[in-house]
Specification:
The protein is mostly helical. It has helices at about 1-30, 35-65, 65-70, 75-80, 120-125, and strands spanning about 100-105, 110-115. The protein folds into two domains: about 35-65; about 70-130, 2-Layer Sandwich (GMP Synthetase, Chain A, domain 3). The protein has a two-stranded antiparallel sheet.
Length: about 130
């Protein structure tokens, strides 16, 4: 019986603590007026347009690169793959030497990629016939 009373008191104390925390947070967090929301939307829109313009300019600059016009299709594939970085280190997959044997076909590109495996992943891959 006394255990049930203690459990009820603990639950009530938890509920009271949650209510007090929510009240305290509501005093700290400000609600935005409609005018402030509209201003935030305008700022977001302008920032988005600026970002899109910057990205478009960077892509256009790359497209105007005279080096690209003289490259073979295989070299262009390598150029694109240089934009793909290893998530653990700041090097791209081409400079890491993970890409080799690129072959451009009329309607597709074939390439071979060297995958790196840790011990556990390699064991799982071998068990499933993937390595």
């Amino acid at each position: 019986m006394w255990f049930q009373v203690v459990a009820v008191v603990a639950v009530l104390a938890t509920v009271i603590a949650i209510v007090l925390a929510v009240r305290k947070q509501s005093k700290v967090t400000q609600a935005l007026t409609d005018e402030e929301k509209a201003l935030n939307a305008k700022v977001f829109e302008r920032s988005s347009l600026k970002m899109e313009a910057n990205v478009a300019e960077a892509l256009a600059e790359k497209a105007r690169d005279p080096r690209l016009a003289s490259m073979t299709q295989e070299d262009l594939v390598y150029e694109v793959l240089k934009e793909c970085f290893d998530p653990e280190i700041p090097l791209n997959v081409v400079d890491l030497g993970l890409i080799y044997n690129v072959k451009v076909n009329p309607d597709s590109v074939d390439l071979k990629i060297t995958m790196t495996w840790d011990r556990e992943s390699r064991a799982a891959g071998e068990a499933n016939g993937r390595v």
